[in-house]
Specification:
about 100 residues; alpha+beta; 4 strands; about 30% helix; globular
Length: about 100
């Protein structure tokens, strides 16, 4: 899952999302303007110094993962949830607390 977390981060930074990985509702919800905004925020940070697993949570048919991403002077938490087919049903970045 760490490789998936890193892949998703790189996709967010470049703005080139592999939409085949997304569940249909998530695909619709992730608008082009959202992708552009996300890329504009994350791309300047460059390559992270580290990415580390925080948690895995089961919720019905979904499994949610949370990772801490650290760059020089800033950190963020990346969370994503997968359905039973392995498709992403939720995905977000938040400032690390």
């Amino acid at each position: 899952m760490a490789a998936l977390a890193m892949s998703l981060l790189l996709q967010a930074q470049t703005g080139e999302i592999d939409r085949s990985m997304l569940e249909s509702k998530m695909n619709l919800a992730l608008t082009p303007s959202m992708v552009t905004n996300l890329s504009q925020q994350l791309a300047p940070l460059g390559k992270p110094k580290s990415i580390s697993f925080i948690s895995r949570t089961l919720a019905g048919a979904y499994t949610a993962y949370k990772y801490r991403i650290v760059w020089s002077g800033v950190a963020a938490d990346e969370s994503f949830a997968l359905n039973s087919d392995g498709k992403i049903v939720a995905w977000l970045f938040q400032p690390a607390t």
